[in-house]
Amino acid sequence: MAMPKYAKSAGLTNGGWFAKKYHTAEELAEAKQKSSKKNYDKHRKHRRFATPGLCTKCGETKPLTEFRKSSASKSGVRPECKECQNKQNLAYYYRNHEARLAWHRADNQTPRRREYQRKYQSKRWRRLRDECASRPRAERCESCGELPKRHSVTVFDHCHATNEFRGWLCDRCNRVLGLCGDSIQVLRGLAAYLENFNAVK
């Protein structure tokens, strides 16, 4: 028996039961429609006439409070009880645990995820520092009095010895303190150096 053209286009191999049982494309389409309707009616009947409170997994009758809510069910609850559903979810978790971890490891290396983590950590540290500060964030630098240029907001300044909050500085002043090691002698020496230079002029 020669293979029909529709069978070839559908990817059916020679000798397949589709090609043997149905001779025309109309017969094949009608058979698929009947099969689809039969399966739909089967599942629809199961959902419609399922007994509320009877678990389809363990077969025990339990109060409706032992079933999770479901808008797709006529009774308003799922066909399996919470205990059976928890067991099913736990088995699925352990069965796909390694595959899920491998997917997350690969996804964490993508540029999209790396950018998300960078922004998330930046916002997280800013929020934590705002909570540790003894006063709200200032709009201007508390040292030079200028608006921040590099960053849109002032930065959190703290004592490196005790980790106590000191104030809100612009990025430039904060870097100067860090480079000087928070040394008052170094800062005074720099101020005197500039005053002597200006006096000579």
Ranges where pLDDT stays below 50 over 5 or more residues in a row are: 3-20, 45-49
- Average pLDDT, rounded to a whole number, is 80
Could you please say which CATH topology of the domain at 139-200 applies here? His-Me finger endonuclease fold
Oligomer: single chain
> Which band does the percent of strand residues land in?
under 5%
Radius of gyration from CA coordinates: 36 Å
Helix/strand order, N-terminal first: HHHHHHEEHH
Draw up the topology in text.
Layout (H helix, E strand, L loop, with lengths): L4 H5 L7 H5 L3 H24 L33 H14 L1 H12 L2 H22 L22 E4 L6 E5 L1 H10 L3 H17 L1
Antiparallel strand pairs: 1-2
Walk me through this protein's architecture.
The chain is mainly alpha-helical and 201 residues long. 54% of the residues lie in helices and 4% in strands. It has helices at 5-9, 17-21, 25-48, 82-95, 97-108, 111-132, 171-180, 184-200, and strands at residues 155-158, 165-169. A two-stranded antiparallel sheet has the order 1-2. A hairpin with a 6-residue loop joins strand 1 and strand 2 (165-169).
Short description:
This protein has 201 residues and is mostly helical. The chain is built from eight helices and two strands; from the N terminus they run ααααααββαα. The protein is elongated and about 105 Å long.
Features:
201 residues; mainly alpha; His-Me finger endonuclease fold; two-stranded antiparallel ribbon; elongated; disordered N terminus
